[in-house]
Amino acid sequence: MTSNLTRRLMALALVAVMAAPQLLLAATSSGIAFPQPHSAMFVSRDQEIQLGQQAAQEARKQYPVLPDNDPLTQYLRYVASRLVPNVPEPRYPYEFHMINQKDINAFALPGGPVFVNVGALQAADNEAEFAGVVAHEMSHVYMRHGAAMASKAMMAQLPLGVLGAVLGSGTGASLARIAGSLFANGLLLRYSRDAESEADAVGARLMYLAGWNPRAMADFFTKLEQEGGARGPQFLSDHPNPGNRAGAIQKLVATFPPRSSFQGDSSQFRQAKQIAMGRRPLTAEQVAQQQKQGGQGAIGQVTRDEIRPSDQMQALNHSAFTVSYPSNWKVSGDQNSGVTIFPEAGVSQSAIAYGVIINGYDPESRDLDGGLHELEAQLRQSNPDLRVVTSDENIRVNGVPGKSVEMIGPSPVTGPNNQPLRERDWMVAFQRGNGSLVYIVFISPENDFNALRPTYEKMLRSFKLKQ
C-alpha cells in the first residue's frame, strides 16, 4: 500500500523513538514480562480508540475490505482470538479485517483496528508465520506507537493556543483532524526501526503464549527480504528491518520458560490457505484505479451460490412503504432512512454489487417524468461512468403509477482478469403525494442480472407505497 491515502491511514500507527528505556511490567503467571507501552500525554485512551475508529472508517471506504462472513476474515479472527487473551490488561477493543489485496502488507491503527492483506496469507508457508504478522500488528497497538507519535507531533508542531483549544474540547474528532493534517503533510511516512524492534519483541511474547513458535515471525520477514529482490514487498518498506531481526528474536525466546513443542498448522489454516490461493486479490494499482473511479470498494470475485436468494420471503415494514425480500438477505437502515437489502457476500464496507437500494429523493420538478430525469442526472453526477441504456417506461405496481429505467456502469465485482465487471441497475421510481420520489434500484453485475431478475420482480410486485 504505497499511496498517499494509505500513508495517511497508516500514519496513526506510525511511531516516534522514545528516548527513555522502557520499564518491564511484572512478569505474568507464565513468567513472560511485557514492556511498558509508550506514554501519550495529549491523547487519552478513549481518544486513541476514537482516532483508530475514524481512521478505520476511512480504510473501509477506500480499500476492498472483505465482509465479516468471508472465510478469510473468519480465519484471521480465529488466529487473533488466540493472541488477544495474552495481551496484558487493560486491552484495547481489537478488531480484525482482511483486505482483498495481493500485496504482502498489513497495518494497525490506534486503539485496536488491524487490517491484513490476503497477500500476507498467500505468502505464509505455515500458520505460525501468518500469526506472526497478526501479532506484530497487534503489538503496535499495545505499545501505543500511533498515539505516542500523535501526541509528540502535536506538541512539537502546533501553536500553544490551538493545542489548548484541542485539549479543552476533549473530542476525538478534533484530534483526528489535527493528526490527519500532520500526517497528510508527510510528517511521517513509515515505521521506525526502533518501533519495529519493539513490535517484534511484544509479538514474540504473544506468539509464545498462544503456542506458536515466535521464530516463525522472523522467518517470514527474512523470507520476504530474500524473495523480494531489489524492490521487495511493501511490507518491508512500511516495516523496516531493525537489524538482525532473527537473531534478536531468537535471543529473546531463549529467555522464555522452556517449551517442549509448539503448535503446528491447524485445519483452519489449511482450509484458509487453500481458499486464499484460489482467490485473485487486487493489486495496489487496481485498488488505486478504483479509488480514482469514485472510491468504490472492490469486492473481488463472487460465486452465484454466495449471493443466491432464498425462495422464502419476509416482510419489511418501512414508514414510507412495505416490501418483501429473500429471507437469507440482510437489511441495512431503519424505518425512517434509506434501506439497502443485500446478500452478505455482495457488499463491501463501501460498495454494493448485489442487492436493492430503496431511498427517497425530493426533486425540483413536481411531476414524475421531470423528477426521474433529475434523479438520473444526480446519479450520473456522482458516478460519471453510469449511463442510461433504456428509455423511460411507464409501470404500475399495486395500482400506483411509476417509471422504470435501466442503467449500466462499473461493478465493484472483479472478473478473472481482476478488472471490474459491468453492472446493470434497474431503477423504478414512484411519486408520493407531496411530490417527492421513492425509488428502488435493483443491482447486479450484468452477467448475473437475468438470474436475479425473477427475485427482483417478485420484490417489486410486493412493493406497496404508503402515501
Q: What do these coordinates show?
A:
The protein is of the alpha+beta class and 467 residues long. It folds into two domains: 4-291, no CATH class; 304-465, 3-Layer(aba) Sandwich (Protein Transport Mog1p, Chain A), CATH 3.40.1000.10. It has 17 helices and 14 strands. The protein has helices spanning 4-11, 45-62, 71-83, 118-123, 127-142, 145-157, 160-169, 172-184, 193-210, 215-228, 234-238, 245-253, 267-278, 284-292, 304-307, 368-382, 446-462; strands at residues 95-99, 106-108, 113-117, 313-317, 321-326, 330-332, 339-342, 355-361, 387-388, 393-397, 400-414, 420-431, 437-445, 464-465. Strands 6, 7, 8, 9, 10, 11, 12 and 13 form an eight-stranded antiparallel sheet that branches. It has a three-stranded mixed sheet with strand order 1-3-2, with helices on both faces. A hairpin with a 2-residue loop joins β10 (393-397) and β11. α1 (4-11) runs antiparallel to α2, α9 crosses α12 and α10 packs antiparallel against α12.
Features:
single chain; 467 residues; alpha+beta; Protein Transport Mog1p, Chain A; 2 domains; eight-stranded antiparallel β-sheet; three-stranded mixed β-sheet; 17 helices; 14 strands; disordered N terminus
How many separate helices?
A: 17
Give the overall silhouette: elongated
Bin the strand percentage.
Answer: 15-25%
What's the total number of strands? 14
Cα-based radius of gyration, to the nearest Å: 25 Å
Low-confidence stretches: 1-27, 156-176, 178-189
Overall residue-averaged pLDDT value: 79
Number of domains: 2
What characterizes the major β-sheet? 8 strands, antiparallel
How much helical structure, as a percent, in the residues?
40-55%
